[in-house]
Amino acid sequence: MTGTIFNIPFLAVAALVGIALYIIISQRNLIKLVMGITILESGVNLFLITLGYRAAGIAPIYTNAPEGVMVLPVPQALTLTSIVIGVATTALMLSMIMLTYRHTGDIDSEKSRRMKG
Amino acid sequence: MASLAFWNPIACIIAFVVLVAIIYLFRSRGQKKYKKGTAQTQIFLSGEKPPDAEQRHIRAHNIYWGFFQALKQYYDPTIKAHTGIINDYIIWFITLVAVTAVILFIVWLT
Amino acid sequence: MHTLVAHSAILIIAIPLLAAFLTPLISRVSKKARDILVIATLVFVEFLVIILAKDIYLNGIHIYTLGASSPSLTIPEHYMVPVRIILEVDAMSIFMGIISATVSLAATIYSISFMKEETGGDRFYTLLLLLVVGMLGLEFTGDMFNMFVFLEILSISGAALAAFRTRFADALEGGFKYIVISAVGALVILFAIGIFYSQYNLLNIAALAQAMQYTMLDKIALALLAMAFTMKLAGVPMHMWAPDTYSVAPAGTTPMIYIASQACLYGLFRTCFTLYGVTLNTATIGWIVIIIGVLSMFVGVTMAVHQSDVKRLMAYHAISQSGYMLLGVGVGLAVLGNPEALASYGREAMSGGIFHIINNALYKGLLFLTAEALFFRLGTRDLNKMGGMCRNMKYTSIFFIIGALAISGIPPFNGFTSKLMIYESVYRFNPILSVIAMLVSIITLASFTKAFQAAFTGPALPQYKDVKEVPKPMLIGMGILTIIIIFFSLFPGLIVNSIVNPATDALINQATYINAVMGGL
Amino acid sequence: MSKIVRTISNLLILFILTFGLYVIMHGHLTPGGGFQGGAVFASGIALLIVAFGSYNIQKKLKEHHFSILESSGAMIFIGLAFGGIATVFFYNFLVGSPLFGHIPPPGSNPGDIWTAGIIPLMNIAVGLKVIAGLSVIVLVMALASSKIEIEE
Question: Is the pTM of this model over 0.80?
Answer without folding.
Answer: yes
